[in-house]
Structure formats: structure tokens, C-alpha cells
Amino acid sequence: MLLTSYAAGEWVKPEAARPLHDAATGAVVAECGTVAPDVEAMADHARRVGGPALRAYGFHDRARMLKALATALNERKEELYALSFATGATRGDGAVDIEGGIGTLFSYASQGRKGLPDGKIYIDGAVESLSRSGAFKGVHVAVPLRGVAVAINAFNFPVWGMLEKLAQTMLAGVPIIVKPATETSYLTHACFRIMVESGFLPAGAAQLICGPVGNLLDRLGPQDAVSFTGSAATAAKLKANPNLLKNAVRFHAEQDSLNAAILGPDAAPGTPEWEMALREAAREITVKAGQKCTAIRRILLPRAHLDAFGAALSEWLAAARMGDPRDEATRLGALAGLGQKADVAAAAASIGAECETVWRGETPAALEAGAFLAPILFRCDDPLHAKAPHEVEAFGPVATLMPYEGAEEAAEIANRGGGALVASVFTHDEGFAAAMVEEAAAWHGRLYFADRDAGKEATGHGAPVPLMTHGGPGRAGGGEELGGVRGVLHYMQRTAVQASPRLLSAITGTYLAGAPGKAAPAHPFTRRFGELEIGETILTPSRTVTLEDIEHFAHFTGDTFYAHMDEAAAKANPFFPGRVAHGYLLLSFAAGLFVHPDPGPVLANTGLNGLSFQKPVSPGEEIAAHLTVKRKTRRNDSYGEVAWEVRIVNAAGEQVAEYELLTMVAH
Ligand code: NAP
User: Fold this and answer.
1) What does the pLDDT look like over 361-396, one tens digit per residue?
2) Could you list the active site residues?
3) Most buried residue among 77, 82, 609, 622 by CB atoms closer than 10 A?
4) Sequence-distant contacts of 273-276: CB under 8 A, at least 24 apart
């Protein structure tokens, strides 16, 4: 199979190609180009065609597109599994890549609907009041970059690596050019082809380069972004590109990482935490043959437990059967290629020069010709004075045991990785857990605590989950991705917008306090989702809050707090002039003032946000409520969510309480 690139809507054959080999058998799987396609035309196509096509949609439409793509891939995922074996991956290894990638698309499809507005502009954070009267305010908005995102990926996650980036750029509204690592590009190519054939990708939204990228980085400008995953050496070279520096092109780097697993002093033999640490370490060393950026490379534990853990882990590793990834009994597949095998062996040798070997597996003679490497477990008895185990990433089934004395030293050793994606801590001890965050969080992108309470529900040391940030400082690249909406914002420009509330409301499509409202033509609860307009408002009739009301509410609900019941005690409280109405009584009265009792388009009240009480209400005072349509979000074909701004005021017009009320309203 000759791998084509997908450029400007066409599958383009390379001018010259080289063979790619099956990691286990050495058979030729595909041929990949050795000459770049017309990358300038591709970048131009992305900016001219893909960007406008994506920006024509809002966040929710793009989220639906992601869901459609994920569904299409899910239906044809067996095609991907069939090819994945050639990368050396067992079925289980393939699942991490394939199901992990499709799952990330589904997750972003759902997050896009929940965490982003049903429009084109994202409001980042609160509205800031910038003037005394509130006539001038500010908000931060985020809008899609007008350029192209270039994703340069590592060989170890040919599917997940592409999909997790594509999920974020698509949702942001930015077209993407994907460049997979050549070694496993046939799997990315197959996955990309399914997406193109699904018909759900708008023209120009995604393109693929199989082979080198030529001078693409020299063609990028200030609205473009590069997301790189791979080795620290390649990242250092690429980010120093003078054109990227001159144009301040965003460069997100996810590099290699010497992740740690730390057993707390309480995680002694026989405890659930000990068992969890053993299982996790064995899994991390063998899954994908250790070719995971997040894999455990260093295992830190109290000196007294080191021998026992080394012996137990060696048993687990010895039991992991190495073999053809297509064989269902295989637990340890092959590295991605013979080049990798040589690299890992060399890296292990330099770690071995400073460490003792605890256990070294043997590669069966029948597998010697393939990219197979048996696990190696080292121990480093003086980790504070060692270099290689903290600095050399053997990107395969290799790990090093290290003893520590006390929490501070454990963190210091973990931090010697120079910045890592993840450290897992196996402890049930609250003090040790808190100390690890205080001492080690600054050097890690993720801290993963596993204990008997989280048990089997814990997601795993090595699994980047879409809702949580993935990335790490220093050596790990200093980049961040995933983390829900945070990851989408990396492809958007955050702009501070300062204006009057009327203009800000129009700009953001959200009613902001201080903007003039429009009198509703009928009671808003009688109007359907499509009829309601942002800013449409009513002021309800008023009602007097009596002492009898307060006492009735107190006895009815059981809330007989002294501020409502005891005049002298209430007066002695600096917040109250005497007995006052319950805040919840005011909310209930407000609902009684603004609801429309008959069946109508309002289907349900689903929540309330940002409730605050500004002024106490004394017996005998009058209250009324302003009800304003603040924001509308389509949910499905039957109904949408309407967020209402509710302001409760007293007879003097002073605000006594405010909140955002959420309702579902029929179309
Ligand atoms: P690599 O050799 O650095 O290659 C990474 C990518 O860069 C490949 O797509 C490669 O393409 C491309 N590339 C190399 N030179 C280039 C150039 N001059 N211009 C443009 N692109 C260029 O890394 P790898 O061996 O594929 O991946 C293994 C490393 O990735 C490990 O160190 C691992 O820790 C790291 N990794 C990190 C994460 C993370 O999330 N932090 C995830 C996975 C892997 P070619 O294949 O065509 O050379």
C-alpha cells in the first residue's frame, strides 16, 4: 500500500517512497513518501477553505461533527485493529490507542455541548466592572485562530495522537494538518481515510501529510500553531525555527518524560496499595511494550521495601508472555521497529552502567529477528547522586527501582526527572499525599493518587483522560493539552473586550447586567424557545414580606435560625438590623411572583447559579423580581436551555438578591 497524503481535498501520491515494516515479522506493510507534498498549498487551503468552513459553525455544531466522526470511526474500528498489530501492539495495546482516540473524540463532543456556548464566541471568566456606575465593563472572549494547526505526532500513538489534537482544534474552529510519525503512519492514514469517507469533515478542515513536512514550518504565520509530540531533541530543533520565532507561532511541545511511581511508607507488603502499585508498575512496563510517554520509568519506595518489591515485580514481569501481538495469549508485544529496539537497548545500557540489574527477561530465539525486547528492571541505590536513571528515557519495557527516606526526599528524587508528565503515588496516608502535592506538583503535569478507596475506579497511571490536563513542565516540554475546554483554548485567541453593557451584550450574545432590557411582549413563560429574545424582561408585581410569613416559613421548613426568630439576638449580629426574612423565602416568593401557572413551553427548572444575597429584608418590606432572558442554548430537537437573570429588589429599587435560573423551554 502506497501511503498518499490528503492535500486540498485530494489524495496525493508521493514522488518517491520507502517501505515500512511490520514490527514483529519484518514484512513490508506499506510505503511512505520521502518527499513532501505541496505544503504551501496545503496551508493556504486550510486558511482559505477550512478555517471559514469551520468558523461558519458554532461550538455545538462542531461538537456534533466530532460525535459523528467518532461514531463513524467506532463502526469501522476493526479495520484499525487489524493494522495496529503491525506496529507491534497486542489487541490490548491497540485499544489504548484506538479506543482511547475514539473515546477522546466522544468526550470532546460532549464537553463541547456542556462547557462551551451554543455560539461562536467563548466568554472566559467573569464580567469585570471597570467603572463606578457600571456603565463600562470588560469581559475576556476567546475566538478561533485564523490560521492552521499543524500536529506533528510521535510513532507510539498513531490514532490517539491524531484524534486528541483534532478534537481540540475542530472544536476551537481551526483547521488541522496532521503529520504522523513515518514509522506507524499507515495506521494514522487508515484512520484519517475513514474520517474523510464519512463525509463529516468540512472541506479543508483536516489534511494529512504522510512523509516529511518539507518547509511547512517556514510557511507558518502569527495565526498558526504547531503541536508537537515526540522527543525532546526534535522539539528543541523545531521550536528554534527562525520563522516560528519571528512570527511568535504558538508551539506546544509534549516531549519525553521520566515518570515516577512512588509507594508511600504505608504502602507496605500486604496492603491494598502495595498490590495496586505492583499491578500498575507491571502494566506500565509491558503495555505497548513500554512505549508510552506516560509509562512508569522510576519506582520510588522506602528502602526497607525495595528488595521485596523488586522480587514481586520480577515475578509479574516474568509471567508477561512475550510474542506475536496477533496471538491472544501475548501480553508483551514488540517495539515499533528495529530502530527503536536499538535505541532502547542503548538507553538501557547507559542506565545499566550506573545501576544494578534486578531482573532481565530473555527474548525467545524465535523472536530475535523482530523488534522484541524483554523487560529490564534496574535498581539505583543512591538516586540523589545518580544521573542516567533520571535523564535517559529508555522508551521501552525498562524501569528502575529507587529507595527514599521520608516524603521530602521522595519528592526530591521524583523531581530529578527535570519535569514529567505524571507521577503516581500509592498511599492511603493523608499527610504523605498532601506532602507530595506540596513538594512535587511544581515538577509534574499530573499527580495520580491510588488507594483502596479509589480502588478499581481509578483511571490508571498511564491514561491521559480528556477531562484532565496532559503535559508537563521542563523536560516534558512545558506544553499542555486536553483538560476539557482548557485544551480547546490553546487554539483560540483570548481578547479583553471593554465596552458599555449594551455593546457587550450584543457582542457576546448574552444579556449583561446594566444593558437596557426589552419589555417582553407577553409573559416570558408563555413564549417558546425560538420566540424568546436575549434581554427580554419583565418586572413582577410586588408583595410584602410579613412577620407571619417568616414565622410560617421557619416552622414549616424547620429553619428557625435566630436571625429570623429572635429580635434581640438578630440585632446583636452585625449583619442584621433585627429579625429578617430567610433568603430561601425570598427565592420562593420570587418564583411565586414570576411563574406562569398554566402548562406552557417551560418544561422544567433545572438549576440555579451564582446565588447571592446583597441586603437583608425586614418584616413589612416589599419585594419584586426582574426576570430577564440572559442566554439561550439549544439542547435537542425538542427543547433548549434558557438562562434567566433574576434580580430581587426592595421598594427602593435596591437589589436584595440575584441569581441565574436555568429552565428547559420547548421549541
Ligand atoms: P521524534 O523522532 O522526535 O519524532 C516525532 C515527530 O517529529 C515525528 O512525526 C517525526 O516525523 C517528526 N519530525 C522529526 N524531525 C522533523 C523535522 N525536521 N521536521 C518536522 N517533523 C519532524 O519522536 P518519536 O520517536 O516519534 O517519538 C518518541 C518520543 O515521543 C518519546 O521520547 C516519547 O516520550 C515522546 N512522546 C511524548 C508524548 C507526550 O504526550 N508527551 C506522547 C507520545 C510520545 P518522522 O517520523 O517522519 O521522522
Assistant:
1) 988 888 888 889 999 999 999 999 999 999 999 999
2) 254, 293
3) 77
4) 273/426, 273/427, 273/428, 273/450, 273/451, 273/452, 274/305, 274/309, 274/426, 276/426, 276/450, 276/451, 276/452, 276/458
Site of grid cell 428557625: 560
For the CA of 254, the closest atom of ligand 1 is 41
Element (H, E) at 527: none
Residues with CB under 6 A from ligand 1: 152-157, 179, 181-183, 212-213, 229-231, 234, 238, 254-257, 293, 393, 395, 421, 476
Domain architecture of the chain: domains with CATH: 43-256+486-493 (3.40.605.10), 259-453 (3.40.309.10), 517-666 (3.10.129.10)
Of 616, 629, 621, the C-alpha closest to 657 is 616
Average pLDDT of span 342-349: 94
What pLDDT, in 10s, does the model give residues 569-622?
Answer: 999 999 999 999 999 999 999 999 999 999 999 999 999 999 999 999 999 999
Three cell numbers written together for 394: 529508555
Beta bridge partners of 499: 137
Looking at the predicted structure, is the pLDDT value of residue 26 above 90?
Answer: no
Which residue's CA is the closest to the ligand 1 atom numbered 33? 256
Cα(38) to centroid of ligand 1, in Å?
22
pLDDT tens-place string over residues 261-309: 999 999 999 999 999 999 999 999 998 899 999 999 999 999 999 999 9
User: Ligand 1 pocket test: which of 31, 155, 168 has the largest number of ligand atoms within 8 Å of its C-beta?
Assistant: 155
Determine the Cα–Cα distance for residues 167 and 162; give it in Å rounded to an integer.
9
- Closest among 536, 114, 97, 100 to 333, alpha carbons compared: 97
User: Which residues on neighbouring strands pair with residue 360, listed in sequence order?
Assistant: 376
- Whether this model's pTM surpasses 0.85: yes
**CA-atom Rg of the chain in angstroms:** 30
